[in-house]
Amino acid sequence: MENDETPVGIKRRDFIISSFILSAASFGCLSLTSCQAFSDWAVAEELTMSADRNDRFERGWKKLKEIDGDAGEKVIEALKDIAPDLGRYTIEYPFGDVYSREGLDVKSREIATVAALAAMGNAQPQLKVHIGAALNVGCSAQEIVEIIIQMSVYAGFPAALNAAAAAKAVFSERGIINV
Amino acid sequence: MENDETPVGIKRRDFIISSFILSAASFGCLSLTSCQAFSDWAVAEELTMSADRNDRFERGWKKLKEIDGDAGEKVIEALKDIAPDLGRYTIEYPFGDVYSREGLDVKSREIATVAALAAMGNAQPQLKVHIGAALNVGCSAQEIVEIIIQMSVYAGFPAALNAAAAAKAVFSERGIINV
Amino acid sequence: MENDETPVGIKRRDFIISSFILSAASFGCLSLTSCQAFSDWAVAEELTMSADRNDRFERGWKKLKEIDGDAGEKVIEALKDIAPDLGRYTIEYPFGDVYSREGLDVKSREIATVAALAAMGNAQPQLKVHIGAALNVGCSAQEIVEIIIQMSVYAGFPAALNAAAAAKAVFSERGIINV
Amino acid sequence: MENDETPVGIKRRDFIISSFILSAASFGCLSLTSCQAFSDWAVAEELTMSADRNDRFERGWKKLKEIDGDAGEKVIEALKDIAPDLGRYTIEYPFGDVYSREGLDVKSREIATVAALAAMGNAQPQLKVHIGAALNVGCSAQEIVEIIIQMSVYAGFPAALNAAAAAKAVFSERGIINV
Amino acid sequence: MENDETPVGIKRRDFIISSFILSAASFGCLSLTSCQAFSDWAVAEELTMSADRNDRFERGWKKLKEIDGDAGEKVIEALKDIAPDLGRYTIEYPFGDVYSREGLDVKSREIATVAALAAMGNAQPQLKVHIGAALNVGCSAQEIVEIIIQMSVYAGFPAALNAAAAAKAVFSERGIINV
Amino acid sequence: MENDETPVGIKRRDFIISSFILSAASFGCLSLTSCQAFSDWAVAEELTMSADRNDRFERGWKKLKEIDGDAGEKVIEALKDIAPDLGRYTIEYPFGDVYSREGLDVKSREIATVAALAAMGNAQPQLKVHIGAALNVGCSAQEIVEIIIQMSVYAGFPAALNAAAAAKAVFSERGIINV
């Protein structure tokens, strides 16, 4: 599906593990040690790395698109010329590992993220992405505003005012409010 | 009820508004301007202040106790010798105004607060109070741990590790984990 | 007076307390409990809320305009489409409660605020508003520059350099310096 | 080797991939799809997860011990009761992914980390661990002090003074200075 | 005077400027103006600058003791084993250069510093030193509390609460309050 | 040389030390050691210190231009209308004192600075200057990217992503990458 393609600029070194095992099996190897194809350490290495990439990267990429939508994709796209591995890690760790965890629903996760970014006050572009993400996963505009108002208590009024400006930009872009 | 009493050390200058209006009415004043007792500016001032205190302070105090429990009360108690008005404001604005708002349930509010305090990383005592508060309003220990793990993404691993240490202390105190 | 009008967008639910008491008195109620009009809890509630709004909001609005001038008004105006209640709180708590306090003169209050915002380094719009406010309440341009230089000691040179850029913009806008 | 053991408390769900493939091969499966043992999704899932764990976790654990030594191990140990997965991530992402990268020598990496933690000023325990780590990978005590002095420029004197106190504690513990 | 001695551990390379002028005089110059070598403006400038250099440390040391008192001295003392040059810089730049400037009275300077450190929230030891310093230069306890209350607006309630705890410790130590 | 000129707006009070020694010689001293006035160690020390003072600005200015190049000069230039003394201090303390120190090579110093500014996340203009400075003193683009990736661990992904955007702008401006 078009939506599930990996982004341009992220060097995909992954190798489909199932097809690899298939190949291995197709060699008719009866034991790993007696089989040339598998005695090569580098191949085994590739295998583990492929497995790694396959899983976390793919899962993360889907999660990123599910939560952040186009805005998330643009973040990764913008990294391709400068730090593609940071793009890969952004997919793998935050989305492949953390947002894919059970134990806290994704709406609550976005509430936590909007709160944290509003409170930190030094990550305006990410705050905008996650205000959009919060809307995507079911937060109402009102709930987002409530989180922002609450941050005046913990991080002060300037942090809340600047977060409100970020929300205004996102809500306006989405046609939620007319400015 | 014992639980609803205002804390010692917060100088209650409030004046029961109903009894004041009662008094006013008992003067038989037919109009405010013609009545000496009310033409005094200071009295009017007292009235508005009483009204103010009554509402926001009382609502905030109940909310504080409902959410933070004893830990919240201790925060206010600790301020009585140094900055009682900061104690009063802590009750009135965060709890009387913000936590009393509709539009976001109190569990989501505590998720936002734990996230923000963990991310800021410079408010360890308040983080502990709100980890406890999150438990009080229905967050599971697991959900709190999930918020903290997620903060490693936005504020870095040191912030998450220090928040985990705070959670460990609170969970241990509550007998949720044995350390 | 035009200058004292409340801003558009802030929903004024306040109720003039004096006229309410007047009305109460005009009922000829001799005691609050015996008077139907006042025995209604909701009305008493409305009364306290009106008193609250009246006092803190009006006092805060005047203080905001006195200190921040048009820049402050624009902050509130910008919130009307997104978070009018945050606008109301910004008037009520910082200005109605805190800046209206005795115990520290307003010039010292602005010195404190410019220092804090310069040191925090993540609230450039608010820093500009308060550099203007500092000028409004009697700080000289030189005193503001001294505060900023001093912040190089506590928050580092980047914080001081960025605050100097903010001061340059404000001073230039006011015609204090020609750039 | 004792030193390379994984820490207690980190639930090792890993599965030796080579032995697994071995087993698969030993089934004499000629193709993956025709082979019961591999048609089970859960097993495949386990495989990818094992591969994942194997690689990044093992590499990270060795790197953590090489760089941070016992101090790093204690960090992971302290998490076992509260957030073992955060411990696993701390091993996998910072150490398995980032510190294992080429392109910057490990001494330069510790210079960067000590600088960042000293400048942030809200991660004293981690700063101590990394001052020790910097010593472990070849920074001299003098070089560490130079980094700290330099942070007075970027984050202010309080940050530098508190980092110097952290260095004093670590150097004293290691017998580098006598206090 | 005992109080003016430089701290142990700070290498004193300073030289009494008067003895230098004495040396100049020993060249036979009876007056500075009648002596060619010294009548040169540039030389006089040079002399002043030497004095100044001398002066930065000496002036800073006096200023530090005047403002921070024993607490400041202890800060420098604590650095002697680990980073004496950071101690020297702390005397020379913040106190010799910045606090010695005209253009802002020292009381206003301490108001700015207490505000900044309270707002930053990650420099508790320095905040305590400067709460003491503020008292030393004429701030009342009440004025310090007002600054702290005001920081709840700009940096949030946790920052204000933690600063209040610092003030409580300092005021108690000084016998201003009994706890 | 054009490149070594001091910036407009910074008052040059410096004095060529050699002319001072010349003056000394004009007193009839044939050699420094045979001349009582100058044979005094303290005097020589004093002379050195004068030179040193002279030196802080001159040394700092050269260091600033060597490290930061034109970008550094523009920072100082931008201050001339608003806070020229902050410009002077920026030259004297960070560059005349700190970057001129021995004990840590200048490449390591820039690694530390890029790391700190990326982690702090509220000093984007200074981060750009120092990414350029890092290139100037021998860091490769790849090494800078590695530092930035590493900051995702300590300060979170938003800090790393914003630093990557800063690096992209600088690398693009220098023609290192084509965007």
Automatic annotation (TrEMBL), chains A, B, C, D, E, F:
Gene3D superfamilies per record: AhpD-like
Carboxymuconolactone decarboxylase-like domain sequence ranges: 84-169
Q: Where do the coiled-coil regions begin and end?
A: none
Single GO molecular function = peroxiredoxin activity
Name the domain of life.
Answer: Bacteria
| InterPro entries linked | 4CMD/NDH-1_regulator (IPR052512), AhpD-like (IPR029032), CMD-like (IPR003779)
Pfam families to which the protein is assigned, alphabetical: CMD
What name has this protein been given in UniProt? Carboxymuconolactone decarboxylase
Which source organism does the UniProt entry give?
Desulfuromonas acetoxidans (strain DSM 684 / 11070)
